[in-house]
């Protein structure tokens, strides 16, 4: 049963709720395509440098924790599931359900970032942070810093996107609890969902490209 | 827009498929397939991305206009990668440049 709502009516320059929602969704997709280009640039740098120095990438990847990377992949995909269910609740007019699922998503995002912090910490201990604390093992590939620089820039940009998502989730969850979304007008939740799933998409590619190159030591 | 409310079951199915593919890609990384390790990893990641885009992001149920936006972004990126690779894979060394 949909809860009582104070959702905004249709703005006067739209002829229907459907048109209003589609306009917002198109705007979000335009932004996401721009995000594809942004991360695409980073993936291109990865592609080029891995082509030029394949051994450095194998050696660097072999020293990343496959277990923690896999754990974070599971956690982040789980957070995508809870976010999808939050959007579903909004479609059905269940504001409290939406807020609850968003809270679960935030908890999973917290776990992801905590694991990431542990990983970054061990890189600090091992002196594997190019330009900051760099003293790799003897006989390391001279281009090893390229792999670790990309590792930090790509996972770091990804983590910053997650932090932005967490801030947005606080706003949407609060609005949801105040009944600001209705089955006809819940585009705010829908758009937050799109953003979060995009963050998940980036990780789906980062995980094999960074963690799994040399898992078996072959 | 998606007036389409999917049953919870659909989302759970996608989630379990994504888990299965994650296990598969991790397991495959421990086996030496030569240069096919990369092909397998990217094929699995692409399948996972497709599931997330189609179901979690509701693109399957959206208007053609939104579907074009979604496809255009990723398709352009693929063209970009192919053109970059033609350069780095096929370029002949320039005399007097590099080592």
Structure description:
The complex is a heterodimer of chains A (218) and B (99). Helices cover 73% and strands 2% of the residues of chain A. Chain A has helices at 17-52, 54-61, 66-91, 95-125, 144-177, 187-211; strands at residues 128-129, 133-134. In chain A, strand 1 (128-129) and strand 2 form a beta hairpin. The longest helix of chain A is centred in the first third of the chain and has 36 residues, at 17-52. The radius of gyration of chain A is 21 Å and the shape is elongated. The termini of chain A are far apart. Helices cover 71% and strands 0% of the residues of chain B. Chain B has 99 residues and is mainly alpha-helical. The interface between A and B is large, with 50 and 49 residues.
Strand order in the largest sheet of chain A: 1-2
CATH class of chain A: Mainly Alpha
- What distance separates the N and C termini of chain A? 57 Å
Largest interface: A-B, 50 and 49 residues
Please state the CA-atom Rg of chain B, rounded to the nearest Å.
19 Å
Structural class of chain A: mainly alpha
Number-wise, the strands of chain A total 2
Gyration radius of chain A, rounded: 21 Å
CATH H-level homologous superfamily name of chain A: Cytochrome c oxidase, subunit III, four-helix bundle
| Helix/strand order of chain B | HHH
Let me know the largest β-sheet of chain B: none
Global geometry of chain B = flat
What is the residue-mean pLDDT of chain B, rounded to a whole number? 91
Quickly count the helices of chain B: 3
Domain tally of chain A: 1
Percent helix of chain B, as a range, is: over 70%
Q: Proportion of β residues of chain B? A: under 5%
Shape of chain A: elongated
CATH architecture of chain A: Up-down Bundle
Briefly note the CATH topology name of chain A: Four Helix Bundle (Hemerythrin (Met), subunit A)
């Amino acid at each position: 049963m949909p809860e009582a709502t104070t959702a905004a009516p249709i703005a006067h320059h739209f002829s229907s709720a459907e048109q209003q929602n589609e306009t917002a969704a198109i705007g979000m997709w335009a932004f996401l395509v721009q995000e594809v280009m942004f991360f695409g640039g980073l993936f291109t740098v990865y592609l080029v440098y891995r082509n030029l120095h394949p051994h450095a990438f194998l050696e660097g990847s072999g020293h990343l924790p496959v277990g923690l990377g896999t754990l974070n992949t599971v956690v982040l995909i789980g957070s995508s599931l809870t976010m999808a269910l939050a959007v579903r609740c909004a479609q059905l007019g269940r504001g409290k359900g939406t807020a609850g699922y968003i809270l679960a998503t935030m908890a999973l995002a917290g776990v992801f970032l905590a694991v990431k912090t542990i990983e970054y910490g061990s890189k600090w201990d091992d002196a594997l942070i190019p330009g900051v604390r760099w003293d790799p093992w003897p006989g390391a590939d001279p281009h090893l810093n390229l792999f670790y620089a990309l590792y930090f820039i790509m996972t770091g940009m990804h983590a910053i996107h997650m932090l932005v998502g967490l801030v947005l989730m606080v706003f949407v969850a609060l609005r949801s609890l105040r009944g600001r979304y209705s089955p006809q007008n819940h585009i705010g939740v829908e758009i937050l969902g799109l953003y979060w799933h995009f963050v998940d998409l980036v990780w789906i590619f980062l995980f094999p490209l960074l963690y799994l190159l040399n898992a078996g030591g072959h | 827009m998606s007036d389409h409310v999917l049953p919870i079951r659909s989302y759970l199915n996608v989630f379990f498929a994504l888990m299965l593919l994650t296990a598969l890609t991790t397991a495959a990384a421990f086996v030496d397939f030569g240069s096919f390790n990369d092909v397998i990893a990217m094929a699995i990641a692409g399948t996972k991305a497709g599931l997330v885009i189609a179901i979690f992001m509701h693109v399957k149920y959206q208007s053609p206009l939104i579907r074009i936006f979604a496809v255009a972004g990723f398709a352009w990126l693929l063209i970009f990668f192919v053109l970059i690779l033609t350069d780095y894979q096929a370029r002949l060394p320039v005399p007097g440049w590099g080592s």
